[in-house]
Amino acid sequence: MDKPVIELFYSPLCPTCPQAKDIAREVAEAEGVFLEEINVLSDEGRRRSESYNIKGVPYIVLNGRRHISGVPSRERLESSLRESMESA
Questions:
Q1: Which pTM was predicted?
Q2: What is the CA radius of gyration of the chain?
Q3: CB distance 23 to 76 below 8 Å
Q4: In whole angstroms, what is the distance from residue 30 CA to residue 48 CA?
Q5: Could you read off the pLDDT of 23-79 as tens digits, one per residue?
Q6: Distance CA 16, CA 36 (A)
């Protein structure tokens, strides 16, 4: 199995994205997973966000399957990440 991945879609203009980034960074470090931060204002970020049909940020995709919209609690992100790893 590939290493688990947290994809965090954000915008530099988003007022709640820094909080989501902090939580995602903490969880990624604690769980030993790769965190990819994707700016939706970049061309690549726009393409990738469209592929997931993302309408707002922050938005988190776990292992390409589980999706969380908004700023999750650390506990919610950890449990969702574990669930996504179990269903892989």
A1: 0.93
A2: 12
A3: no
A4: 26
A5: 999 999 999 999 999 999 999 999 999 999 999 999 999 999 899 999 999 999 999
A6: 17
Residue 11: DSSP 8-state: -
- CA dist 68 and 82 (Å) reads 14
Q: Using the structure block, give the residue that is written with the tokens 């969380």.
A: 68
CB 9 within 8 A of CB 54: yes
- How far, in whole angstroms, is CA 81 from its chain's centroid? 10
Cis peptide before 18 (omega within 30 of 0): no
**DSSP SS3 for 74:** helix
CB within 8 Å of 45: residues ≥ 6 apart: 9, 38, 39
Q: How far apart, in whole angstroms, are the C-alpha atoms of residue 61 and residue 24?
A: 11
**Which CATH class name applies to 7-86?**
alpha beta
Burial of 47: CB neighbours in 10 Å, binned 0-12, 13-18, 19+: exposed
Domain ranges in the chain are: 7-86
